[in-house]
Structure formats: structure tokens, C-alpha cells
Amino acid sequence: MKLNTTKELRLMANTIRQDVIRMLLPAQSGHTAGPLGLADIFSILYFHEMKYDVNKPDWSERDRFVLSNGHVAPILYAAMARAGYFPIEETLTLRKLGSRFQGHPSRHWIPAIENSSGPLGEGLAIASGIALAGKMDKKSWRVYCVTSDGEHQEGSTWEAVMFAAKYKLDNLVVLCDRNFIQIDGNTEDIMPLGDMAAKYRSFGWNAVTINGHDYAALMKALDDAKKMKGRPTMIIAETTPGKGVSFAENKFEWHGRAPNKEEAEKMFAELGEERKRIEAEPG
Amino acid sequence: MSGVTLSSEVMGSVQLTAFAKKFPERTFNVGVAEQNLAAVAAGLAYQGKTPFIGAFAAFSPGRNWEQIKTTICYGEANVKIEGSHTGLDVGEDGATHQMLEDIALMRCLPNMLVLYPCDAEETKKAVYAAWKHTGPVYIRCTRNKVPTFTTLETPFAVGKVNLLVEGSDIAIVATGDTVFPSLMAAAELEKEGVSVAVANMHTLSQIDSEGLTALAKKCGSIITVEDHQVKGGLGSAVAEALAETHPCRVRRHGMQMKFGESGTGSEVMKKYGLDKNGIIAIVKEEIARKK
Fold first, then answer.
1. A133 reaches B (C-beta below 8 A)
2. Which CATH superfamily is domain B3-140 in?
3. Is the ipTM of this complex over 0.85?
4. What contacts B233, CB < 8 A, 6 or more positions away?
């Protein structure tokens, strides 16, 4: 499904934000802030940017999507469900025994998912291996990887950063969810990450820092990445964790917990208001 | 072709240079980065490649176990892992490089096939078997030269214990670089009238309970001999299997939960009882115990 206007994409982001809360409520465990903060990026990736065929998940020419920070699973499941990979109702079994919607995404349970994730600092290496295979076979499909700022504290991430630059993986574009929070608090207090784009540039990457809720900026960065030759691209997307729900925004306490019934109702109310506002905007 | 090799800096040491010369476009050096080695290989495998990754076992799987678990085993990636420079046999480099825990690390992983060939000829068979097998494989290798005593005709069936010498008083089950000294020990003991069976257990994940049970029934008890810690390796695997099918005495001979030290490979092996004479001494203790 391809959405052509920013308005439609924003409505989709609103939809999948609500889906995330619907999923987390019965699960009563899981992560809230990250998935809400990433909704705009997932809306653009799944409904504007990437090539795929839901009726043929193993289509050889599809773009490959690698999720590195697997704990944001609900936003991936919501986007894939709305794209048509599976019924949205089924995602309400998130984290329940027997559900294919595992707490962290698994390619064993859902073959349409490229990689099993959860342990941090691995996705970039996997994405680099996939991108290298694409280069070896001279394929035109691209690799999209979503990672988080926190997992740049893992040394293994930097091993992959060097590798992707060495092998000139310009078919790889990475979006880093720069939301400045992790379980214990603010990233810059716990282990400062500083100017991440500068770090990437010094490692030989093309790197930009943008607002991760700015659709025009995201689309431009993704387009620029396609034109870049000889270098992988890192888009440091500064996001607001908990985006769309005032009382969860920028609160690290919401990194690793699910809303209770009362909180969920407030969340739906706020997101419902936002939806009305978007709908009222000129097309 | 789907075969790809990757190494973390030690291409020459792990014998990947021949492939690199013939297929440079399918050879990648990731630098000193074993975690990346495993996860990049997984990514290649997801796209239909068959990566062989080679490094010192102390660091792969020693350092990248979690990547092997998550991206290769749980991720169902067709990656073949060569762990070289294993055991006390590494010698001079000392304890940090003498990998004595890798069998334990690998055989506890779901989906992982673990092979430990005993000489150069069997290593060829193991590599071929790994290529034919769909799924993760760990091949444990030895650095120092080991006499080649098996031939093209020597049976090699994954998951089967290979009985090399018949015997009735006691049975040795050895793996990898301890198979040859076990054979030497059995030959010498035979001259003294002790009948020792020697079996080569090259597969350490899918345990041949049937073969082990037959051996235990015939010989009464088993001695396992391995260039690895006695906890978690061959001895543990054999004891676990026999505890279920045919409980009997299993004497686990190997590294007794210590760290190694420098010296030539053969000197260190001798000091910790993994040479011919050390094995003979253990057999004699066990025979005396029976009487």
C-alpha cells in the first residue's frame, strides 16, 4: 500500500500509534515510548519508501528491512499489519503463549521478518551482511535498518560501522531513533553518545541529523541516501519518545512499561484528538 | 556459488588463504571483530549465501557466543563456524589462547551441529559434511600438526560414534586431537594384555546413544579423553547419554577445570596427562578399580 500525501502518512502514523497501545494493553508488558516515537518513521518506510509485496513476502526484489532494537516490536507489527501482512486483530495476542507476535520479533515465528532481534547492537551487522550479499549479486534492492541511540553503547555496533564503510555499502541506509532515553534514564547521563552524526562521518559514512517527526526532512534524507555513492547513510532521527501522548513524552519511565486501562484510555483520547486535527487540515 | 568465507584478521592462521586466492570476490576480512564476524555472516546467510567463518576459537565462539546464539542459531542461518587453535595443543600462547570451553559453549545451543575431526583427512570430511548440512555447524580444529591416520575409506557418518579399535576390557571414547594418542595408548596396552576399545566421537551435538550403549555394554565402563575442560565437553555428553540408556562408570579425562600454561603443545599436553602415557595411566587406574 502506497500513501502519497503527508496527511495520509500522518494519519497512518496516528493509526499505528493507537494500534501499539491496543497491543500493549492486553499484554501488560513491553515498551511504550520507543514504538510511539518511531511511528512517523515506520509510516514513511512501510507506506512510502520501501518496495515489498505482502502477497509474496519472499519476493526476491523486495527491499530488506532490518530492525535492530527489537524491543520496539509493536510498531513493526502494527505497520506490517496495516500494510497487509496479517490481520490487525491478531496482533492483540502480542506476548501471549503461542502467538507469533513474540515479545521481540522472530523470523522463525514470522518468516516475513528478515531478522530475529532483541539483543542490542546486532542489527547493523546483520544489515551489513544483507547489504553485502546484495552487492555481491548486483541487486538493486536496498537495505533499511532501524536502530536506537542506546545500542550505540554496544561495541559491536561500531564493529559494523567500520565494516559497512570499508565495503562501501551504499545500498544501506540506517535510521537511528535518537530519543535520548534508555531504561535507566537519559543517554547523555548514563553513557554520553554526543554528536552521533559527527562520529559516523569520521567513520566514513554519509550522516545527517534531522527531526524524526518531520516528513519532508525524512523523505529528503532517504532520497539523498539513494543518490550517495560509495558510502552507507546514517540518518540520526531525533524523536520524542512517547510522541503523541503528552504525559508519556520524554519520560524515560515509559521506556519499558505498558499502559494500564486508565492510562490507555487517556492515550486513545489524545490520539483521537490528534487524528481529528490532522483530518481537518487541508489535503 | 553461494560459498563465502569471512575471517577476523587471522585468514592465514585459520587456513582460509587457499579459498581467498581462488575466490577473492567471495572472501571478506572483517578485522579484529568477532561479534561482527558472526552477525555479518548471519545477514549473508539470510540472503542464501553459505558463509564459513574462521577465527581463533578463544574469540569465536569465545567472544561472540550471543551473536552465534541469536543471529545464527535462533535466526536459523546457514553459517559454518571454524574454531581454530583449540585446546592445550595451542601451547606457547598460553591460557588465554588455549580454548578449552568451546565444545560446552556450542553443544548447548539449539540447531547447532558440533563436529571435531581427528586429523586432516577427517577435517576434509567434516567440512564437506558441514557444506551439505543445512543449518549452523561448528567445526573445532587443532593448530599443531596431527598425524593423518584415517583414510578416504574410514567411515565418517555425522552423529555416529566410529569404533576404530575393538576391545573388551575397557573403552576409550576420544575426540579430535586425543584420538591419535588414545590409539597409541591402546596399542601399547594390548602388548601388556589389556584389551582397550577406542572410539572416535567426532559429533558432539547429536549424541550416538546407541553406539555408546553398545560400547558400554561390551566393555563395562568408559573413559572419555578430550583436550577440553571435563565439564561440558565430551565427557559430559557421554555421561548424559549413558545416564539415560545404560548407567555405568564414565571416567572423564581431560582438563580438570584449570587454566593451561605456556610450553610446546606436546609439553603442555603431557603435563596435563593428554599424551599417550597420561592416557595409559588413566586406563590402568580404571582397570585396577574394576578388580
1. yes
2. Thiamin diphosphate (ThDP)-binding fold, Pyr/PP domains (3.40.50.970)
3. yes
4. B103, B104, B107, B204, B226, B254
